[in-house]
Amino acid sequence: MTHIEINPKILCGKPVIKGTRIPVYLILELLAAGYDFERIMEAYPDLKREDIEAAIEYASGV
Description:
This protein has 3 helices and 2 strands, in the order ββααα. By secondary structure, it is mainly alpha-helical. The protein has a single domain, classed as Arc Repressor Mutant, subunit A (Orthogonal Bundle). The protein has a two-stranded antiparallel ribbon with strand order 1-2. Helix 1 (about 25-30) crosses helix 3 (about 50-60). It is globular and about 30 Å long.
C-alpha cells in the first residue's frame, strides 16, 4: 500500500500512515468511537481522506 508504512524504527514496526507517526490502529479507534473522516482530519491535519481509506483497507486485509 502506498499510504501505509511498516518500519521497525517507527513505533516499533506498527503500521503507520506513510510520512507520519500516526498509527493505523489510532485511525480505526477514532472511527469506532464515532469520529467521521472530517473530524479525524481536523484533529490530524496531516491526514488526507485517502490515508483514512487506506487504513480501513489495510485493516480489512484488502
